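Exercise 7 asks you to align residues with tokens for two separate proteins.
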Amino acid sequence: MRCGTGPLRPGPAAAAGGRNKSNRKITSKMAKTEKPAKTKKTVKRRTDSVAMAAAAAAAERAAARQAAEEAARRARHLKELSCASGAERELEELVFGDTVHVEEDDLLQCLAGPEQLNAPEREALQKDSSDSEVENEAKGNLLTKKPAWVDEDDEAEENVDMTHRYRKDFMKSDAEKTLTKKKLKRRLEEQFQRAMGGVPAWADLENRKKSKTASDSESDEDDDLLCRTGNFVTSSESLPRGILKMGICLPANQERFANGRLATVQFHPSAQVVMTAGHDRSVSLFQVDGIKNPKIQSIYLESFPVYKACFSVDGEHVIATGTHHRMFFVYDMMSGRIIPIQKVRGVEERFLRSFELSPDGSFMLVTGTSGYLHLLSMKTKELISTMKVNGRCTASAFTPDSSKVYSYSKEGEVFIWDVRSRKCLHKFEDEGSLEGKCIALSKNNQYVACGSASGVVNLYTTDGCLKEHRPKPVKAIMNLVTSATCVTFNPTTEILAVASRETDEAVKLVHIPSYTVFSNFPVFRRKQIYLAQSMDFSPRSGYFSIANNKGKALLFSCKGRKKSIVGGRVAECWHMLLRLWRLHPWRYSKAI
């Protein structure tokens, strides 16, 4: 109990309670002031989350809609594939067997695409691939290790004594008494390449690596080759240069030599027959076999020394002109008749000698005097038109398609004519030619050969002849020392034969791809050809014949070339004609 008149002081508990109440009031006031700010932030966060959820839901719905459309499209396609007609079902069973129904589901599943993987499977697959990458990287680091040591003696260059008698040939100068092994190796490689004509395929490492990859793909073909038997060694299609493999056969007219010089030798275009004609007024036919060459028949043309004779394109007629006659003969071999053509209306020539037949068998071109060329029809033997060159025409030739004529003048100019319009298309000068003698075109219409009086035979390309007035020859053949009087190509345009009738053994065979002369023909220091008058190759280049001034048709066989030239209907006609000739020789020709 406290006495006094002053105010009462509160106790400690009352003071603490008073402080707590004041603190609660202050806290409630602060809470009231902070509550609006917290509410605004919470509302904003909830609004953002709702927007994100709405966007995610929209994306999921779009993905689901797209997946549903893709599934519907695939289902529609699979339904179309599975709905096959009865004929298609039968065809499938016939081709694939009865298992087509069993494997149909597998086929449709393959067409539907790869199976989708879920998230755990994709993670496992990625983990396996990462492990394999780590292993490969570890292997690569293992292979790129440095060597443990380096031997200095291996890098030192060792010198080789070049004065040794086995190595003297590799010295290029007296100063090279010693060479390193690398240089000596290079010298040996150079000598080997010179001897072999280049780097062989088996010695070229780069080509061997490339061919190794190609050989892997050809292993199946090799297996197929080993599973078969037979002769797999065949001759090359291309003709090699340098040495020509030729065999000497009996003369083609062995059973009947001509009494005078032979003017013509020619092989039949489709039968195994050769024709000879000459100044003894006879035309003879022989069967070519390279062994006996039996005679088929001979016809005699009274008082008519033959200047030139030629088979028709179909091989059923022989056209022969004389040395001093205006007329010419046509011999029909199928009927055995000799048809004289007394005079061609419109052709005012004293003699009809040189002529050419078109490859299509439609025209006959007669070379006249004063540069005139007379174009006749083979069917009617009548004049179609006349063309004229400047000066005197010495030779002419048709192109393989019979559309153009090349005429060679004595002044060394070549005129190109269009057969259909009979107009001169182009003219060019033969380089270095003082007097033209003969001309020939290759069977593939690629080359033109012009022989002059100087003995030079210029070889041109037809493209250059048609475009230029003074073309440059691709090769000037200067192996003849007298006038080139005969040039001819073989059917495959691999050989060009050039000859001169003014000196003995003046025949050369030129390899066309390389423009080089075969060194083994004619045989050195062995006279057998004498004066060559005419030359011809068989249709497949199996035989080569030369008519000389001794009345012989020399025959040579080209080894590696096909010699069988018998053709179906024509061969039968020849055998029939031979039988008829043996039974009734007086009916079909006059025997000699």
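Second protein for Exercise 7:
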Amino acid sequence: MSTNHNALSKSRVAGSLTQKLRDSFCSFLHVNVVAALIKAGLTRCTGEVWGRCFDWLLNTGSPLFKMTTRLLCRWARLFPRCPQAATASARLQTSTVHQTEAMCQMSLSWIRPSARHLCQSSELARMEETTTLPYEQTQLVRLVEKASTPEEVLQLWAEHGGSAGDAARCLVQLNLRVMEKGGKGILKDPRCESMLETVHSQVSSVWNGSLVGLLRALTMLGVPCDAPLLCSIQNEVLWRIRRLTYRHLAYLMDWVAFQQRRGPTEHKRLQTYENEALTTALLKQLELRWTELCDSRTVSILMGRASLFTPSLMDKLEDKALELAESFSAEDIRRVAFALASQNRRAVPLLRALSYHLNQKPSFELKTPLLLDIAYVYGKLNFHQTQVLQRIAAELLPRLSELSSLDVTRCAKSLAFLKWLHLPMFEGFAQHYVSNSENYSTLQVCNLLMSFAKLNFQLGKGEEFYQKVHKALEGSFQNLEPFLKTDVVWSLCVLNQANPYYISSVAQYDFLKKLTAGGTVDRTETYRLKLLHISASAQLEPLGITTESPTVLLPAPQPKVEVSTPLQSSLHTALQSLTNGRTQALRTAVKTIYGWTIDGELMVDSENKPIDLENLKAPHLPGGGGRDALPAGARRIAFVAWEFPNFCLKSKDLLGRFAMQKRHLQLAGFIVVEVPYFEWLELKSDWQKVAYLKDKLGKAVAEDMAK
């Protein structure tokens, strides 16, 4: 009883205020009264006040129109959440209720969707996406969707005809059939012209979704960018752009990207006034309404067009992708990851989430192209996720026989960038080449060799493999681009498969002149070092050829400040302690004629005690060192610090470049003392480091004496 009494009391209070509002509604004071009614919840009891407000709004041009409209919208949000409103209104047997009943019924349709909490910000967008189409499919549309050829679509239109909306959907289906079956000159067909004319005459009546799809369909069918119909559709879309759902905006963005892929000249020609205005408005709407994103498909579509967006919008899309990653399909994961790679955006949290959910997918969803794309993305972004790499290897190994030569070289290159040596995979790659060598191009053979060399993958029984490699390179080796030719010869040196023919081809003066023409300073320096390594292979390894060091033939490197790593600096300090501070007995950061840098060089006698080396001959130095010969029993010691990037992923095996450095220094007469980072970092005090170096030195000398 008390509840009903309170409701009736509120209704009487509202009735008395109604009269005052009707008499002086234009005053700002009474607008505040309306706000107070909303805040107090009195308006939930009757529709009389609001009925008179509507009448006043329709008959008055008050400047307070906007403020009152906002108050009405606020009431609309509060009304559906008040369970007492319907109960109290039902008990009021007044004529006012019956007079406003029609209006209240009419307003329920637009009141109800607003009854959602603030935490449901994406609910409205989701409702827009899942609701049924705002039109009834005509018989023509149902028949056209079943058509299998362009001719059937045209014939159905000629027989049935229809509205502009029907014509738009027929044109979209016609484009799909032309893509499948072909249809040159289809735009000149009178039936197609009839559809275009129907759309042009009634473009304002075409539904939003059909209008967006029609833009891409007409562009793909070859309608000129300056055609009146296309300009008219773009104008219509521009007028409606605020009413389009976010998914429609994403499809429009896809259309803009499609235009840009047609080439720079064609894209410049397409930049009409309507196109530029639409693109600008579209990008603005995408950035302003990004919170409406609620489905993984739209996120993946937009992420695939990342090159068109501002960095701030890309950050927001990455946040949305991270939020929706759990609902991504395997294809969505591939598309988003590929978009990150194309923009060089190493978003680690998102990549980790994508990796986790990809690893949960069943095998039938992990198609071969998808796995190859994921490997490429990881290699491009230098993102290491061992579990996913293991899954990729496990899925690809049974399918190696089905892979093409391009797939094999692409996968090998991606894994090489990741520094991940999976022995069964690379053995499978080598066997695939042996079985299908005739399908490999020269460039693919070069890429396979460079991948093997980077990881120092040495085949156990590689005679057949390398015989076919040398045979494939015979005819086209001299035609390779200079930088690629240098990389191939350097890779063969790493793999111990170089021969005099390859080395002499890169030692000629004309070739060196081509190599240095037009290159950047850093690139020239990189290939200067590679040529020094190739020359060292010719001088130190039994290849039956002697070549002059190409140092004099290449521009002298510009002097630059060498920055030592913490490991190298710590090693230099420990070596100084080992030699008791005698600078004559120690060289650090020694640059050799072989292109390698020695972190620390010592000369020890038969008792492993350092001796002065300033006046001793040093054939590995550019100047040759001093004049004195080495004392009897003396040994050259090279200390080399191996950093984390010098090793394969999750392994203690050196990469090919550093394995060749160790081999060359040994062939040059050095006893190499290796100082890997994982051992050095465990040493905390200086005396521990000095003791460690003494121990390593003694073991290295003992091993050399035992040979």
